[in-house]
Q: What sequence folds into this?
């Protein structure tokens, strides 16, 4: 959920300014209209007042001058006019005329200043008792009173409207300020929540009405979120930690990618398989990963995965083998969904199957080697037996004996090979060897005498060095015979003609609890790289060249027999083209616990 509040200050301010302007114009217009109306009415009443005044003066003057001479009339009108003018500052002049429009008297000469400020003239007829017009009275009004009333009215109206405007403006501005302040407070609160600061509360001392309700609702929501967070955070952290620790400690490599291919989690095994530093590829596209050989390893498969419909890939994850940093990695890509089944990305599991791939290859080599090894002696046997059977009479006894010697050799070879294979399956099945205290020197000599014929074929001599102080030790004679036979056969096989083979048996100088037996030849030797692997089952250096045949089982049997079944140790020291020394240590007094452990393992 995304909450976005946009306070457009300029827009709001413009609205307020426009409101104020319009209300100011309205107030000014209303006040002008009101003032002009009041003035109009004022002047109208003023004109009425003038008429009334004129009529009164006309009536008074008629009454005062009735039956008087012209001179008397003038004098009376003069004194009457002066007394009126002196008592009323609004009248600027009074003029009396007879019925022929001749001026009887005018005050303009006596009140010159006033006459000059005349604003309104009006003329009223003077009528006698019979209703006949006897003359006219003209009055000038200077509107002093009217203008002072108008001025006062205007001023007071102006003050009243200005006050109204000021109060109105102040109310609008204060209200706007208060609302904006409350919105700003709310804005800060919402921002705090959006940043995860649940529990933030808003002060609302001065707020009222809907704003107060809004603030209360906000505070309620915030405290609920806070409580929810507190309740869930521990649970979520626990879940996350569990999930991460499972992934981190799983025996296979795991890479978790989001829907944009960015790696979001890489466990230590995956880092090791991919030869990358901790967090090196986090947040980068995993499809673009390049191994140390410069090969883009996963791009094509990730693209295939993404093209496959989710319903299909969900049921059957994409599996493939890929070479990463010269190792064979079995990879499985499966999609990742949320609880509501939204696609989140994918998980790639990486399993290093280099060893298994190697063993697979060795196994198939083994099968081809075994068949070849079996076929060769069988062919020889068939041809020799066939010759003897069909043409035996034609050969001399010596020749026949030689033929039978060859047949015997091949049978021994065949027998050895079959025994190796049988031993192998016996050792693999954890069968326990019975041990008896015996003289290891006797076993050694017996084995060597059996191999003498084989050695003689290559004119190889055994040089045996023995220690007469070797005590009797517990061992399984048959299996140790096979161990010695394997080592010596190898030495014969991989040494040149006419070269000696040294065989030594003695109590170990470094560790007198062990008997040490070594077989040294001056043969082709083994490189350091191969030395690490020659004791593995089916492993043969010659698989590369196929010059000398074998099954690759011999040294594996030696190692298992000595180390697993006799608590001993095998070793090899060799240099290419110089020769090799193979040997093993046998404990003089094997510990009971180890024996028991082996027994348990055998039973299991
Ligand atoms: P087999 O099972 O018939 O004995 P193999 O001799 O090939 O077959 P191992 O005895 O297990 O198998 O030997 C493994 C490999 O070690 C051989 O293929 C050979 O390359 C190397 N090797 C063993 N002994 C020697 C040796 N004395 N000199 C040189 N290489 C040796
Ligand atoms: Mg061998």
A:
């Amino acid at each position: 959920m995304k909450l976005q509040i946009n306070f457009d200050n300029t827009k709001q301010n413009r609205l307020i300014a426009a409101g104020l302007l319009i209300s100011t114009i309205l107030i000014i217009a209303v006040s002008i209209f009101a003032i002009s109306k009041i003035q109009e009415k004022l002047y109208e009443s003023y004109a009425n007042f003038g008429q009334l005044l004129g009529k009164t003066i006309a009536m008074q003057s008629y009454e005062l001058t009735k039956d008087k001479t012209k001179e008397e009339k003038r004098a009376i009108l003069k004194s009457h006019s002066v007394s009126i003018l002196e008592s009323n500052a609004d009248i600027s002049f009074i003029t009396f005329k007879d019925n022929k429009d001749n001026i009887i008297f005018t005050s303009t000469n006596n009140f010159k200043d006033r006459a000059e400020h005349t604003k309104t003239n009006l003329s009223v007829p003077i009528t006698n008792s019979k209703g006949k017009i006897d003359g006219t009275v003209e009055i000038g009004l200077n509107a002093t009173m009217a203008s002072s009333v108008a001025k006062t009215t205007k001023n007071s109206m102006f003050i009243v409207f200005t006050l109204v405007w000021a109060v109105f403006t102040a109310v609008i501005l204060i209200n706007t300020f208060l609302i904006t302040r409350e919105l700003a407070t709310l804005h800060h609160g919402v921002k705090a929540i959006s940043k995860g600061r649940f529990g933030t509360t808003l002060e609302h001392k001065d707020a009222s009405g809907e704003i107060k309700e809004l603030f209360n609702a906000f505070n309620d929501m915030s405290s609920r979120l806070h409580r929810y967070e507190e309740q869930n955070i521990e649970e979520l952290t626990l879940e996350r930690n569990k999930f991460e620790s499972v992934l981190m400690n799983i025996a296979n490599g795991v890479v978790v990618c989001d829907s944009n291919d960015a790696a979001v989690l890489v466990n230590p095994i995956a880092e090791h398989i991919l030869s990358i530093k901790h967090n090196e590829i986090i947040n980068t596209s995993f499809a673009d990963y390049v191994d140390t050989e410069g090969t883009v390893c996963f791009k094509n498969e990730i693209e295939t995965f993404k093209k496959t419909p989710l319903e299909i890939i969900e049921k059957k994850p994409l599996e493939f083998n890929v070479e990463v940093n010269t190792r064979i990695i079995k990879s499985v890509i499966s999609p990742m969904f949320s609880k509501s089944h939204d696609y989140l990305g994918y998980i790639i599991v990486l399993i290093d199957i280099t060893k298994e791939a190697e063993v697979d290859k060795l196994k198939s080599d083994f099968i081809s080697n075994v068949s070849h090894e079996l076929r060769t002696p069988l062919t020889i046997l068939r041809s020799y037996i066939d010759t003897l059977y069909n043409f035996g009479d034609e050969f001399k006894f010596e020749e026949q004996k030689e033929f039978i010697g060859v047949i015997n050799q091949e049978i021994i070879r065949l027998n050895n090979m079959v025994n190796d294979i049988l031993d192998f399956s016996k050792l693999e099945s954890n069968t326990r060897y019975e041990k008896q205290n015996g003289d290891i020197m006797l076993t050694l000599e017996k084995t060597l005498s059996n191999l003498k014929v084989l050695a003689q074929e290559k004119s190889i001599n055994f040089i045996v060095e023995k220690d007469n102080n070797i005590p009797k030790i517990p061992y399984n004679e048959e299996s140790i015979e096979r161990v010695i036979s394997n080592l010596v056969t190898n030495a014969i096989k991989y040494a040149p003609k006419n070269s000696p083979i040294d065989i030594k048996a003695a109590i170990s100088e470094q560790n007198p609890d062990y008997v040490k037996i070594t077989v040294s030849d001056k043969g082709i030797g083994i490189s350091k790289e191969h030395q690490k692997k020659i004791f593995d089952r089916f492993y043969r250096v010659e698989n590369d060249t196929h010059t000398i045949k074998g099954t690759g089982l011999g040294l594996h049997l030696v190692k298992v027999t000595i180390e697993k079944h006799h608590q001993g140790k095998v070793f090899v020291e060799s240099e290419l083209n110089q020769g090799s020394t193979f040997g093993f240590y046998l404990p003089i007094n094997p510990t009971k616990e180890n024996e028991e452990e082996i027994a348990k393992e055998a039973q299991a």
